[in-house]
Amino acid sequence: VQLQASGGGLVQTGGSLRLSCVASGRTFSTWEMGWFRQAPGKERERVVRVTWTGGNTYYAEFTSSVKGRFTISRDNTKNTVYLQMNSLKPEDTAVYYCAAASATSAGRGLYDFWGQGTLVTVSS
Q: Taking Cα atoms as reference points, which of 69, 68, 66 lies closest to residue 37?
């Protein structure tokens, strides 16, 4: 089972990036997915947690600093979750990770699988 995060890069303030998290080895359609980030010298923080409740209906909980700027979506045919990041700010600079949690783990605040991380750099 693997999660592969990609899509990071260098962008100017106000720009956009779309991160992708491709899952292989199993289907994560019923799992909680999360995007995390870790900036240099800072602790890792969760950017968003999302649970799909049926079809394309989902419940997403974004950290306050990205609300209104970041959105999430998925493509089941590609077993991929996307994090669309708009109006990027220098403080969004970090390595971004995707993660997946079973219902059991999610209830404990734990994630079972992690991607390798993709670097997002926002220049001022």
A: 66
CA angle 98-87-58, nearest 5°? 45
Q: Which pair of tokens denotes residue 36?
A: 């995390």
Strands 80-85 and 118-123: unpaired
Report how far residue 51's alpha carbon sits from residue 106's, in angstroms, rounded to the nearest whole number.
Answer: 10
What pLDDT, in 10s, does the model give residues 79-122? Answer: 899 999 999 999 999 999 999 998 899 889 899 999 999 999 99
Contacts of residue 120, Cβ cutoff 8 Å, sequence gap at least 6: 8, 9, 11, 17, 19, 37, 85, 88, 92, 93, 94, 95, 96
